[in-house]
Amino acid sequence: RRPGAYQVRVAARDIATSKVGAAGQFVEIPDLNNRQLALSGIVLGGATDGDSSNAKESKMSPTVRRYSSGSNVRFAFGIYNALIDPASHQPNVTIQIQLYREGKQVFSSPILPVDTKTQADLARIVTTGVLSLNPELEPGSYYFQLIATDALAKEKHSQAVQWLDFEIVK
Length: 170
Prior knowledge:
- The chain is mostly beta strands.
- Helix content is about 0%, strand content about 50%.
- The strands form 3 sheets. Strands 5, 7, 8, 9, 11 and 12 form a 6-stranded mixed β-sheet that branches. Strands 3, 4, 6 and 10 form a 4-stranded antiparallel β-sheet that branches.
- β11 and β12 (about 160-170) form a beta hairpin.
């Protein structure tokens, strides 16, 4: 209803087995009315074509975020309120992906331009990609951080950051 931080909790019971499970996560709802660059949550998906190493466990499931080192992970997110260049009638947004383990950066992608030419709604840019996990990454907990930068925005409001935790398994 209103922008801000929320804690979402869910509990479920399997009727057949009476087993109960619960999950919770903090969610940040951006204020899109302030016209500042903002990102949606990130969805990570499973193996891409030709990569079956983690397909059974996490194939395009946003709930199970376990991936084998060396596998390819799909990601998707939305970019909101990117400014439009009056000359080209297109936004000028780039992204950078960073991986962290135990507070230390273990990967940083090059700065990548976001292709907006086929987008139907430039106020809500849907972006997807594939991250290849280095086969030498050790099993454990990681953070996938995404930084979007709007080259047309004033420096104070030119970046938006979103992150998501996941696990690398053998």
